[in-house]
Design goal:
Blueprint: E1 6-9, H1 15-19, E2 28-31, H2 41-53, E3 56-59, H3 73-85, E4 91-94, E5 97-100, E6 102-108, H4 114-131, E7 136-138, H5 153-164, E8 167-171, H6 172-182, H7 186-191, E9 198-204, E10 207-208, E11 214-215, H8 224-236, E12 246-249, H9 257-283
Parallel strand pairs: 1-2, 1-12, 2-3, 3-4, 4-7, 7-8, 8-9, 9-12
Antiparallel strand pairs: 5-6, 10-11
Helix pairs in contact: 4-5, 8-9
Length: 284
């Protein structure tokens, strides 16, 4: 099922409030397949009930596409069955690695080299063959530059996506976090990405450490500079903004549902602004 508009991360903690809401403002829910693959009983029934109300997107956590460890084929087969069961057409993952001899529970950056492009691209192609669909790769937040890099991050992302023939999941908060931590122009960075391949977007809150380092936590409200960057991102897209599903991520420190819905509505407002502008440009 195709998805568009503005959505919200589906978290168990939000279910009681969601069950009391009309859900009119929420176009879709995002979930992490790993958190639901083996759900049974009331959790499976709950998931099925909400799937009847709204479409889902899937955003993976543990594929570790940039790792040197073997690709987890069994996980991919389980994810494909899950996606098919709930009619989920869109699956994205992080362009990073998180496993070696066991799971590291962190998303680590990949050295930006030609060799890494070829390595990651062949793993993406293998994953797409197993899943039976194109996947989207998300630009990840990072806190150190991996040694040995031969190109900048934007060029690396573009090369991987073109080599593997996959799609781009653009996380606007990650762009903001990295641009502030490493002092670069986030708009110039986004202009270097293959924006024609954007299939999905994220916006989220973050945390600022005492030393000024920004950490991508998904535990706070979206701040004004990130909203402005989302506005700029929509303006750069070659398609109508409302056609690119955009999800509000919130993983803990949950406020009242009404506050999250207000943020989802802010996504809608920006999407409508740029969808109208795109229509005007197309008919000029």
């Amino acid at each position: 099922m195709n998805v568009s508009g503005a959505g919200l991360g589906f978290r168990r903690e939000l279910v009681p409030a969601l069950e009391q809401s009309s859900l009119e403002a929420i176009d879709f829910f995002e979930l992490a397949p790993e958190n639901w693959l083996h759900a049974g009983g009331r959790y499976r029934d709950m998931l099925s009930r909400f799937r009847e109300l709204k479409p889902f997107t899937a955003h993976g956590l543990s594929l570790s596409i940039g790792s040197t460890a073997e690709l987890d084929v069994q996980l991919l087969q389980s994810i494909r069955a899950f996606l098919d069961q709930y009619d989920i057409s869109l699956y994205t993952e992080h362009l990073s690695w998180c496993a070696d001899d066991g799971h590291l529970y962190d998303l680590l950056p990949i050295p930006c080299t030609d060799e890494a492009v070829r390595w990651v691209a062949q793993r993406v192609r293998q994953a797409q063959d197993i899943l039976g669909r194109q996947i989207g790769l998300e630009n990840a937040s990072y806190y150190f530059t991996p040694p040995g890099s031969e190109m900048d991050e934007a060029s690396f992302i573009k090369a991987v996506i073109e080599e593997s023939d996959c799609l781009l999941h653009l996380d606007v908060n990650n762009v903001y976090v990295n641009s502030q931590n490493f002092a670069y122009d986030p708009i110039a960075y986004m202009r270097q990405l293959p924006l024609e391949r954007v299939c999905y977007m994220h916006v989220a809150g973050h945390y600022v450490e005492e030393d000024g380092v920004i950490v991508d936590t998904h535990g706070a409200e979206v701040i004004d500079p990130v909203w402005r960057l989302l506005d700029e991102a929509y303006a750069l897209l070659p398609h109508r903004a409302r056609d690119i599903p955009t999800c509000l991520e919130r993983d803990f420190n949950f406020p009242e549902l009404s506050e999250l819905v207000a943020e989802v509505d802010q996504i809608h407002t920006l999407q409508e602004k740029h969808s109208a502008a795109c229509t005007c440009r197309g008919t000029a």
